[in-house]
């Protein structure tokens, strides 16, 4: 059940979400959920997760809410998730504020062609941010650690549709959705700890030498670390250029990796999948290639390195098709 005529106002200083989760009291949310969903809400079952299995519990834990909701004669089981984060740095606080702006101002523009959560309610307090969203895992139950080629195509199809919607959005006097960060990308040098990681780039590539040798890429890559470290700052500045029209700039997801994707297999009998995507803390303008690079490495762990060119060709064909439809 989606909310009818519900519009999110400013974050509530004394919102019900964080209060309910703090007390582990799902029942206290029944009045506000009834108002948001325009439905009669039954008893609420509230469960906290422990973080994703492939991050060893380090992912942001979420709360799952399940209950029946009735509108007139229609009743259905409803599943929502509450993402409660308590950022310890200003960088993280800005990221979650950015995610809220994405759901308010960008998500309605892209929802037709890309599956992503609906934001039903949000709190922001000293105790952190809390977002109440529909649970994508109900319709998209697959949440793999890595992707094979068919799932990779589904992820790239989603990304092409997302990029096409905002392609060169600042051309001809237009603009990107309001309120977002001036540039997207989790891995940019604006994230302070990434500056510290520059010194370790060469060592990381050396640690991957076995895989690179297996793909015949080690001789090319062995000197890449020092060269990348030397070029990182001017490259980062060029990628984050925020003034004036830039070709191939679009709205980036900013952290486009497997952990942020849910999939389902389509009922065609073939190995064909559809993707849904979450976590938009680092959404903002940037070059499309940044999302592609984040997706192809390191989260696919080089298991698609041999078909990288084919996957890039697939993304490009999907992007062109979407742009021609616009």
UniProtKB/TrEMBL annotation:
It comes from the Eukaryota. Residues 146-303 form the Aminoglycoside phosphotransferase domain. PANTHER family: PROTEIN KINASE-LIKE DOMAIN-CONTAINING. This is Aminoglycoside phosphotransferase domain-containing protein.
């Amino acid at each position: 059940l989606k909310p009818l005529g519900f519009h999110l106002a400013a974050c509530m200083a004394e919102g019900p979400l964080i209060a309910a989760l703090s007390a582990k009291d799902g029942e206290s949310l029944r009045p506000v959920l009834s108002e948001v969903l325009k439905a009669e809400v039954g008893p609420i079952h509230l469960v906290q997760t422990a973080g994703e299995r492939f991050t060893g519990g380090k992912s942001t834990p979420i709360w799952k809410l399940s209950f029946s909701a009735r509108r007139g004669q229609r009743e259905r089981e409803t599943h929502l998730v509450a993402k409660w984060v308590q950022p310890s740095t200003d960088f993280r606080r800005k990221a979650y504020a950015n995610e809220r702006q994405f759901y308010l101002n960008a998500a309605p523009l892209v929802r037709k062609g890309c599956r992503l959560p609906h934001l039903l309610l949000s709190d922001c307090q000293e105790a952190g941010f809390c977002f109440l969203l529909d649970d994508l895992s109900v319709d998209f139950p697959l949440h793999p650690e890595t992707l094979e080629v068919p799932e990779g195509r589904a992820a790239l199809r989603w990304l092409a549709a997302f990029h096409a919607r905002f392609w060169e959005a600042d051309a001809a006097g237009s603009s990107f959705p309001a309120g977002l960060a001036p540039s997207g990308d989790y891995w940019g040098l604006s994230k302070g700890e990434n500056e510290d990681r520059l010194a370790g780039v060469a060592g990381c590539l050396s640690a991957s030498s076995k895989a690179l040798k297996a793909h015949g890429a080690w001789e090319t890559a062995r000197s890449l670390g020092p060269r990348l470290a030397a070029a990182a700052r001017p490259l980062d500045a060029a990628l984050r250029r925020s003034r004036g029209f830039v070709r191939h700039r679009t709205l980036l997801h900013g952290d486009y990796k497997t952990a942020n994707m849910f999939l389902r297999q389509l009922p065609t009998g073939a190995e064909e999948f559809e993707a849904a995507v979450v976590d938009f803390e680092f959404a903002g303008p940037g070059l499309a290639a940044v999302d592609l690079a984040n997706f192809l490495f390191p989260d696919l762990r080089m298991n698609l390195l041999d078909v990288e060119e084919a996957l890039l060709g697939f993304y490009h064909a999907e992007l062109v098709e979407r742009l021609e439809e616009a």
